[in-house]
Amino acid sequence: MTDTCIFCKIVSNDVTATIVYRDEQATAFRDIHPAAPTHILIVPNKHIESVNALQAEDEQLIGHLFTTAARLAKEEGIDRKGYRLITNTGIDGGQTVFHLHLHLIGGQRMRHPMG
Ligand code: AMP
């Protein structure tokens, strides 16, 4: 946990969010500015700044974030029609919160381009 990281504060319950899933490795909560009917952020409970900071020991954790995303997509009823998983990395990648996260976005047809 870092003192200044908003997602660390959500993980530790020091900042309120609409939590939809939590276990010993990951927390998922609704994005405060949803880009689609379903917009959930899935974060590791431990602070990892971005994909750039990943270590080999994090490989199981990253897999867990994806299986959590798949389970939540099913719970949200968007698994059959599809959805988008995004991990922005660094300034050029559009990352604004420097605690690694997966965006799970769905409930509508994605139209915006990738770049
Ligand atoms: P990114 O730009 O990929 O780093 O994504 C950061 C996301 O975090 C944005 O979509 C924000 O809307 C979202 N966000 C920032 N602060 C909060 C918060 N307190 N609760 C929920 N979502 C947040």
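^ adenosine monophosphate complex. The domain at 6-35+46-106 is CATH 3.30.428.10 (HIT family, subunit A). The two ends are 32 Å apart (CA to CA).
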